[in-house]
Design brief:
Glutaredoxin; alpha+beta
Length: 166
């Protein structure tokens, strides 16, 4: 099992198979528009633009489980992200990342990569999961870790792929 086994609904209401991203390095992030970490959208978009041509995708999953910091509708979320941070990477419908109603993708991600003190639950908005080109979870980053702090890990996944292709 890997991330390619899941589907999710986009903000525009289309069902999307994550298998469509097969062969790409992915960064999967739970997001929110009214969080102290919301400015990370800018860094996420910067990484996306920098590495997209090399096969990198950022996938944003809005979540309202943490102090109701994502109360907006799908259209409002899309407009907010585009207008305030220039977000062009794919955004998906608002989901739960913890608990009995957690989206199956996040159930998988949290089992594959535990967080601080080996806790599985997502601690807060902007928890990030780095996925290799084979769909495997490589690393989990805490909400306070800004996107530019793990750029070297993304580069390493590209380098590993190039070495394997030789």
């Amino acid at each position: 099992m890997n991330v390619y086994d899941f589907t999710a609904w986009t903000l525009s209401g289309q069902e999307k198979a994550l298998a469509d991203f097969k062969g790409k390095v992915l960064l999967i992030v739970n997001t929110a528009s009214k969080c102290g970490f919301t400015p990370q959208y800018k860094g996420l978009e910067s990484l996306y633009k920098k590495y997209q041509a090399r096969g990198f995708e950022v996938l944003g999953f809005p979540c309202n489980q943490f102090l109701y910091q994502e109360p907006a509708t799908a259209g409002e979320i899309q407009t907010f992200c585009e207008r305030n941070f220039g977000v062009t990477f794919p955004l998906f419908e608002k989901i739960d990342v913890n608990g009995k109603n957690a989206h199956p993708l996040f159930q998988y991600l949290t089992k594959a990569a535990s967080g601080f003190l080996w806790l599985r639950a997502v601690k807060w908005n902007f928890t990030k999961f780095l996925i290799d080109r084979s769909g495997n979870v490589v690393k989990r980053y805490a909400p306070m870790t800004p996107p530019e702090k793990f750029e070297a890990d993304i580069e390493a996944l590209f380098d590993a792929t190039q070495t394997a292709d030789r």
